[in-house]
Amino acid sequence: MRKSSFYCIIVLLLPVFVFSQADSLYRPISASCVPGISSNGFPGTNVTTNFSFNVLGGINRNLVGFEIGSLANVNAGSMTGLQIAGITNFTGGNVKGVQIAGVNNFVLGDVSVTHLAGVFNFALGNVNGAQTAGVFNIAVGHVAGIQLAGVLNLAVGGAEGAQVSGPLNISIGDVPLQLGVTNIETGGTFTQLGVANIAGRSSGLQLGVFNFAAKQEGVPIGIVSVAGDGWYHVTLWADETAPVSVGFKMGSKYIYNIYTYGYNPLGDTKHSRFGLGLGTRIPLDPFYVDIDAIHYQMNEGVSPWASNNGYNGLSEVRFMAGLSVMPGLRIFAGPTLNVWNSAQFDGETIPSFGLFLGDYDGQNFYTDIWLGFSLG
């Protein structure tokens, strides 16, 4: 009989086995060739045992001890102890202990301690401990512990602990920590680390390329961070490297992203710049202080990416004091610290004014540091 056929028969006959016997028997040792052909008799779902040895697979009511099967172990009731199966472990009640399976562990009750499977783990109840699988873990109840999977972790009832996977973590409820390429939670989270992080409410750190929180109470750090309850501003300013710059700020309670383009049509070297930055706002109503760091790519002409001569970078830290003049209108000004690195231009040609603090030019590379000023 092929393994796949055997596995299907187990699934189809399982309801019959589970409910066919009501009287409970205790036998310290059980041995089976296949389900129903065993020392327990047929079907054998009324036996509680301490040691179960199954050549291909076996069925018991409850296990309190140790069970091993080359293909499948099935317990209609509960399992307390250790189960090891080549393909699957199935438990109709609660599990307290360790289940190890080559393919999957399937539990209709709660799990305490750990699930370890080559492909997937499924728990219809709560998980108190760990689910570890090569592909995915699913807990319909609440997880108090860790879910560790190669592809997907799903906690329908939320989690107290961590979800760690390759591509995707999903929690329908609160979860303290998610670590994966994509992290999604519909309740509250404290820490999400991934390429894309999505939260109903974030109260800690979101670190990724894209971050979203419907309610942002923490610190999102990424190229794009969107807060459903955040603020969005268009800003215009002038400084020593570009008399005209326009920017867009997306902010939350503690931090904001800024995206900016500037152009300098003056002088012998007309250049443009595109920048990405991260900053924090200190509200002192009606005043405020913005401290941000912006990195620009610069080049001759209108487009900052048109150069074939390599990297032209300007890193700028700004300290801006602002005043709210009227709703929707603010003015700001403050000093800037600038560091120029380029394989094409000497930094002395970039600013129209400023206080130079250092010039570290080498062969085919230029590094300059100066203090500037911004007004907007």
Compose a concise summary of this entry:
The chain has 1 helix and 33 strands. With 376 residues, it is mainly beta. The model is unreliable at 1-13 and 15-21 (pLDDT under 50).
What does this structure look like?
This protein has 376 residues and is mostly beta strands. It has one helix at 3-19, and strands at 25-34, 37-38, 47-54, 57-60, 62-69, 72-75, 79-85, 88-91, 95-101, 104-107, 111-117, 120-123, 127-133, 136-139, 143-149, 152-155, 159-164, 168-171, 175-179, 182-193, 196-207, 210-216, 219-221, 224-227, 231-239, 244-251, 256-264, 271-284, 287-300, 312-326, 329-342, 355-359, 366-375. It has a 24-stranded mixed β-sheet that branches. Strands 25-26-27-28-29-30-31-33 form an eight-stranded antiparallel barrel. Strand 26 and strand 27 form a beta hairpin. The longest helix is centred in the first third of the chain and has 17 residues, at 3-19. The chain is elongated and about 95 Å long. 40% of the residues are buried.
